[in-house]
Amino acid sequence: MSDSPLAGKQIVVGVSGSIAAYKSADLIRRLRDEGVEVRVVMTQGATEFITPLTLQSLSGHPVAIELLDADQESAMGHIALARWADWILIAPASADTIARLVQGRADDLLMALCLASEAPIAVAPAMNNKMWSNPATQDNLNQLRQRGVQLIGPGSGDQACGEQGEGRLLEPLDIVAAMKQLAVPGLLQGRHVLITAGPTYEPIDPVRFIGNRSSGKMGFAMAQAAQQAGAEVTLIAGPVALSTPSGVRRVDVETAEQMREAVLRSVAGKAIFISCAAVSDFRPLSSESEKIKKATHDTLMLELAPTVDIVSEVATGDNRPDFVVGFAAETRHVADYARDKLKRKKLDMIAANEVGEGKGFAADDNALQVIWADGSQTLPLAPKPQLARDLMTLIIRQFDAKNSTENS
User: Fold this and answer.
1) Which of 87, 188, 261, 371 could disulfide-link to 231, CB 3.0 to 4.6 Å?
2) Which residues neighbour 139 within 8 Å (Cβ) at sequence distance 6 or greater?
3) Above 90 in pLDDT, residue 76?
4) Residue whose C-alpha is closest to residue 135's, from 100, 95, 105, 97
5) Three-state DSSP class for 142?
6) Residues 92, 160: contact at Cβ < 8 Å?
7) Looking at the predicted structure, is the pLDDT value of residue 299 above 70?
8) Is 161 part of the annotated catalytic residue set?
9) Closest residue by Cα to residue 204 from 82, 294, 102
10) Residue 198 C-alpha from the chain's centroid
11) 189-285+303-403: which CATH number, 3.40.50.10300, 3.40.50.620, 3.40.1160.10, 1.10.10.10?
């Protein structure tokens, strides 16, 4: 068995109608060299550029083309393929295929497969440079990024049309290298990860509360990334309007104390704790049992008490996980405050970001400064699903480094 991070992965390679389809033959061979089990799905347009028999010979399995093919459906139809795949890799992905993927079309096998599968999707674009730079294509790509689809390439250079520019399909070895980067988190297989996400609401009366602007998007993206990395994930969520990531166990709470109790009940035996929630620092000292009437108050004074720092309690407790990650949302001096919290709270890693003026909370994109005892790395602005996968890769590397040191 290959020691490649792709070894043992089950990847559906989707081939769409592009002159670059000839490169898919070499791509399939390179993937199999890495220990990947490959199934191929072709669009009708792709069959005009390369024969299914060629790709069948290289993959070792029949090529699926027709959505309503009785033979295919009885063997490996789109639902079975959707369940089988660890990844779906569309290479080459034409401009038309990208547009149809954005629209959620299901009128051919490849598109139906993408809709039916919960596997992550990677897309390697291939098209004329003018098509690539067209605002319609760029808008489509932005939508795919927001949905967590990984883009691989394209490259730049000579094109089949005789022009030069961006839009070339990356070379197969480069696509394989990119897939290796995406597959690194698979090392969490068999590990238990506990994640908190979202805000907490601290009641003033039955109607009003103190809260914050956290949407929970980053924490939920972290839970999805951990699950895709092979981990068993428990997600403790404050009040958010988000769907539970597939394969993740979710516990809903509202207040900081409820979140603390849920964390302490769940933390034993976990390998990694990621405190992504924006837990309230203060709560009203008392909460009224009935709605406070505005007409009876010219002013209203709230007496606040501090809440317990959950991540500090976990990091210093008897059931401390092997690796504890905190988050820091700051309006200024982001790195300085983050380093202080890393030391003071005895964390293994902290991910810090600037918030306010449209940054951080509720936004679809974010950027992070990730800091640990002897290093740091900046993760640039990216959609939160992609950012979560990049951060999970860093967490895994430092988690493995810490375990290797302690066990040596």
Assistant:
1) 188
2) none
3) no
4) 95
5) helix
6) no
7) yes
8) yes
9) 294
10) 16
11) 3.40.50.10300
> Is the confidence at residue 296, as pLDDT, over 80?
no
- Fold match, 10-185 / 189-285+303-403: yes
Average pLDDT over residues 195-223: 92
Which entry of 80, 99, 102, 161 is annotated as an active-site residue?
Answer: 161
For residue 315, pLDDT over 50 is answered with yes
Which residues are within 8 A (CB) of 221 and not within 5 positions of it... i.e. 6 or more apart?
148, 384, 385, 387, 388
Token pair belonging to 314? 């976990």
CA distance 399 to 408: 14
- What are the boundaries of each domain within the chain? 10-185, 189-285+303-403
**164-187 pLDDT per residue, tens:** 778 899 999 999 988 887 776 557
If you write DSSP's letter for every residue of 194-252 in order, what string do you get?
EEEESB--EESSSS-EE-----SHHHHHHHHHHHHTT-EEEEEE-S---PPPTT-EEEE
Contact 78, 67 (CB under 8 A): yes
> DSSP letters along 371-403, please?
EETTEEEEEEEEEHHHHHHHHHHHHHHHHHHHH
Superfamily for the 10-185 domain: Flavin prenyltransferase-like (3.40.50.1950)
Using pLDDT thresholds of 50, 70 and 90, give the confidence band for residue 162: low
DSSP 49: T
